[in-house]
Request: fold
Amino acid sequence: MATLKELSKRKEGLVGGHRACAGCAASATIRQVLLAAGDKPTVAGIATGCMEVVTTIFPYTAWNVNLVHNAFENSAATVSGIEAAYKVLKRKGKIKDDIQFIAFGGDGGTYDIGLQALSGAIERRHKMLYVCYDNEAYMNTGYQRSSATPYCAHTTTSPAGTKIPGKAQWRKDLTEIVIAHDPAYAAQATPGYYMDLIRKVEKALTADGPSFINVLSPCVPGWGYPSDQTVNISKLAVETLFWPLYEWQDGSYKINMKPREPKPLVDFLKLQARFRHLFKSGNEHLVEEFQAEVNRRWEALLRKEQATSA
Amino acid sequence: MKTVAKTGNEAMAFAMKQINPDVVAAYPITPATEVVQIFSQYVADGEVDTEFVAVESEHSALSACVGASIAGGRVMTSTSSQGLALMHEILYIAAGNRLPIVIALVNRSLSAPINIHCDHSDTMGSREAGWMQLYCANSQEAYDSLIIALKVAEQTAVPAIVSTDAFIISHAMERLEVLEDSDVQNFIGEYEPRFSALDLENPKTYGPLDLQDYFFEHKRAQIDDFSKVLETYEKVAKEYAELSGRYYPALEEYKTEDADVAIFTAGSTADTAKEVVDELREQGRKVGLVRMRMWRPLPVEQIKKALTKFKAVAVMDRSDTMADFGGPVFLETRGMLYDSEEKPLITDYVYGLGGRNIKLTDIARVYDDIEQVTKAGKIEKLITYLGVRGEE
Reply:
């Protein structure tokens, strides 16, 4: 695994000067993923979304690698096509280099509208890493709810009102859906634990087949917290068990971070405006339900790890 | 050159085999086209070098084609009806990124009601997407047109749709002449992409966000390049004629020199109408036929020149615009002729929707009608829905 010192000397795949918000975790995610990929030629694809919008405004680009943007729902399908062309052009001797392929998409472009394309690409075994930068709602279009939006979160289409306290449903477990496709590698990460993310990207890119990393990427305006708190919130998501760091390969689960004393979920919730309404009197039961569900999912993950460990 | 018996689907798949594209990504939506099945057999038998990507939807089919084309591959796909509708979003993206992808298409009606038979509502609904459109009248032409279209697309960086009428052409066995593989390869040449996302020396961002300060100039440039397609087409079609002995103009005229009236239509119906023209000519009637083959870009000057010599023209449209003003060929034709000093009376016959059979007698009746219009010097009925029960 590349050390921090080695990483610091690599050429950046995504450079500064783009127009992401201060404290944006998604741009940090892409930057770290490309750094981890950095010692081999990389071609990337990206779905329409925050990161495409802030990094590619013509005539500027923040990307030092070839990047292909097609549409919102087809990052996986587009990179499938690039990878297919690469295979045939390599067979014909028109391409000499070994190239690795990374598809990026937000949670809207991955959990929702791009789920079918992602599923198809994994089933066809295209050798690509798909990275979902999951900021838990449609942040680019105005903070609308997605199937990645957590329970009770206020978004512009799941507003906290006098009758309904934010999103009524639990988040879809996309990582598990991907694992059900038997990919070469799958993991959850978050940029607060950046060396964990780097290691997972390296592992994913050397896996023999399609791989997937779901990266929880806190969003300053969408989640409603001060821009200097991104790393803290990213870490709190793990420490409260809200976003477990784990990986899956060859049928086995491995949890990468098991807090000895998990912090209460409220530590994560209370810093964010999207959960502010949960702290009004009368809503205590919602926090309890939320905590219980986080615990239930964590326990289920522990059992999966135990059941699949050698 | 050898003579073979092939259906329209087989003919198009065979042309694809001889083109030997780098990538074909396709999906069998209902109604599916057989072209891809036949082509996958060529892949399975190692007769092509193609990477075949059996995607999970037509949306992903064209999305993967876009990726493969940006990566510098020669790329084709095939679809029909709902599949083209599902590709709609990506049609614009392929054209806007100047990707010379070619679709072998079978024209079928769009749902609802669901129906798998021929009309032109699928491609006519995509005419603003920035793709060249060629409507074929038979299997021979479908085979030849795919080869021509690929070369035009690659020379102009404009994607192309080559279409046949469902069942009437797609499933009907016809005698046709095919070229040798080497002749096709020499004709289309080695593909030299203008750019490639696999070019590591020159990393670029493809498909960036393009806002108010540049978008319009980029669109205008695309429109400008699109207008040059006809010229390239004429050149390539002539080169192909030298190779094959078969010349396909963008607009075909049949027995029009001294004609007073003409039908203006496309696809297999035009071939059927030629029979009617021959019969009526034997009766001494001065009737002709103009067949539109290329409908994007529009060969405007050719259409004006061809149609202004008649006293009356009946457009036969195999789709409707839902504008309460007939079909797209009618609407656009009237637009093109508006400034002409001498112009024919033009009526529209929307026909054959959902595969309703068009008979020789139906076409003969249209000629009767326009001769009547000529005699009267005025149009009694502007738009007719030909052969619809309860209508006439």
User: Anything to note?
Assistant: The first helix of chain B runs from residue 8 to 19.
